[in-house]
Amino acid sequence: MRKWILTAIGISLSLALGYVFLEGNPYSQLIGFFGFMSVACTLIPLPTPPYVIALGKVFHPGIVALAGAVGNVIAAFVEYQLLLWIFSKTELQHRVETNLIFQRFSYYFRRMAFVCLVFTGFTPIPFEPFRFAAILIRYNLPLYLLAVLLGRFPRYYLIALIGEQFQIPTRYLIILLIVSLAIPLIGMLIKRRTSVDNEKMEHR
After folding, report:
1. pLDDT for residue 188 is more than 90
2. pLDDT tens digits for 44-82?
3. Domain layout of the chain by residue ranges
4. Is the CB of residue 136 less than 8 Å from the CB of residue 87?
């Protein structure tokens, strides 16, 4: 249920920003984008590439990348504090820390955490497992935020550069946004259907 609630919030925020991009002036788009990126890349699933490309058509890629990366740093800070608080109120922290697989993973992760966070923040490799691991092991917060900044800035710069160089029509970006929103929904539906089918098989 929580996943569906977070997904619904993500879709609502994405559509709200989409409206700003369609109806607002460039500076309201930049402000809306910064606010959006201050929530994106957290527990709430938000598609970022369509908006980074769209803003790259209007502003210099460096401005877009800075707004996106700083926004993500704010999001990372809030998420770090929130998850640490949640872990302190539940048994999850103890269960994870006593897990042998996590202990082995964290041993190697601690030795190259900064590089892993920067690399996965920049590349298409999923960033979530590494950022959650950093929070679980209570990785140094300033270094964590710096890794987010260094990973996300060049990523958003390159994506915004696509918008500047190719000036992709808005209709194609809307299609990209719809696809980006649909993929997690389809994945959740498939997972739910598979779980229901497995439960039916167990009761036969």
Report:
1. no
2. 778 899 999 999 999 999 999 999 999 999 999 999 999
3. 2-202
4. yes
